[in-house]
Task: structure prediction
Amino acid sequence: MQLSMSKNELKEYMRRQLNNYFPDNYDMVGNDVDIAFDLGLERLENCFKYLTFPAYCDDLGQTYFSHLHGDQYAQFLYYFSNSLWKTSENKPICDKLMYLNRVLNNFFFSYKGKLPDIFFLGHPIGTILGNAVYSDFLVVFQNVTINTSADEQGNPAPVLGKGLFMGAGAKIIGNKPVGDRVSISVDTVVYDKAIPNDKVVLSDSEGNIVIKDRKKNTCMAQNYFRVPIE
Result:
């Protein structure tokens, strides 16, 4: 992957950011940090090679990462913090990385959670993602809320299918599953309702949700990925 600065420079850049925003005694140094940092970059490169945008990957398979590309940086902060948590459970640094994502990008997802290997964040300002079983080819835009968790009866967090597209302001609330290749339109709220495969969900003029069959070859998420979402 082609980086906008060397790996060591990028690591030091991020270290200085953390120390500037959170000037405590926890420094982003150590063998666990080095391992997780490299793993985060590997996961980022693996994801970017599936994306259709030239700023992420060109037609020859060359991937790119810029520390000044906010969406890319938000994604790397998640991959790095999640990798660090899995490597050593270094909670202070994981917390700082998570909060740095909130400060810079107003994006929140816990480093303890698991986003898929392949996903796309489209300027995710104001987006909060809760616990769920996320699948590949997820697309999330700004002001999206996914508020899901185990319910009082102990049922697990719901499965959100592959190729889920969340338009600006879209919301999923509750514990019901969402199928594959589902598109949830702008400002549409899916409240505690299961959505089958291959549906488009939108709001009518009165705010009620309408569920329609997806037309052939019109999976919204497919526009963002180089491989078929099947």
The radius of gyration is 18 Å.
